[in-house]
């Protein structure tokens, strides 16, 4: 977890050339650090973009293009928008590409016959909520009671990782996916972890999509090009979003049908080091841990 390149801020002052924002505006941080000629990010704010800082500060200086104003009639709270900032915008951009790729080959397949599987955390969760709205069948694996409950609460088929055999994990997982898809295989496999790439390929349907927007394990992996061609698999790789995608995601979410679960806890400024340690140890239950820099967390 990179602490500090996602969140909600309030505009205190604007430069003379800024016309799109005004003082007291509350905005989502849009962390596209250095866009290319088409607006897609090459570096990320507060991470690898030179000369930038994140929201791990009482006051920061940003470019106007790195803020998206929160609609005044939004149904989401500020903590929800803070969690939305990086993960949901990433989810929106990645899923639009993955869904578009699926439709290039399988437009005639009705959504209820499209099986979308998620492996990962908050980004995958957000993508599955989108796929569910489109009418797809959605499922995700989780390992804690709280996360399993959250998935079920939002209509996502929850597979308890604890019920899968450690000794025969791949075989057990593939059997569960075959059962869930009725033998068809996964249509769109959302994989932001990368630790079981071989299992991912084996689980997929013909004309299936593997999509990712990040990496945690398996920076490189081998691919049998001939087999992937025969199976007509499409591999989708995206990195955050361009401005138009961020604005579209915010507009869609502001209608209230696609939102972040309300956080059960907001960590204080003094608790941030403990949050980072707990996240690294894998003991943070929440997909969207939130910390507050200012005292107002409303």
Topology:
Blueprint: E1 8-10, E2 26-29, E3 32-35, E4 41-44, E5 67-69, H1 78-106, E6 115-119, H2 122-133, E7 137-142, H3 145-153, E8 157-160, H4 169-180, E9 186-191, H5 197-203, E10 204-212, H6 225-231, E11 234-237, H7 243-254, E12 266-267, H8 272-280, E13 290-291
Parallel strand pairs: 6-7, 6-9, 7-8, 9-10, 10-11, 12-13
Antiparallel strand pairs: 1-2, 2-5, 3-4
Helix pairs in contact: 1-2, 1-7
What is the distance, rounded to the nearest whole angstrom, between the alpha carbons of the first and last residues? Answer: 24 Å
Largest sheet: 6 strands, parallel
- Beta-strand percent range: 15-25%
- CATH C-level name of the largest domain: Alpha Beta
Count of beta strands: 13
Helix content range of the residues, please? 25-40%
**Class per helix and strand makeup:** alpha/beta
Number of domains: 2
Strand order of the largest sheet: 8-7-6-9-10-11
Low-confidence stretches: none
How is the quaternary structure best described?
Answer: single chain
What count of helical segments does DSSP give? Answer: 8
Radius of gyration, in angstroms, nearest whole number: 20 Å
Overall residue-averaged pLDDT value: 93
CATH superfamily of the largest domain: NAD(P)-binding Rossmann-like Domain
**SSE string, helices as H and strands as E:** EEEEEHEHEHEHEHEHEHEHE
CATH architecture assignment name of the largest domain: 3-Layer(aba) Sandwich
Q: What name does the CATH topology of the largest domain carry? A: Rossmann fold
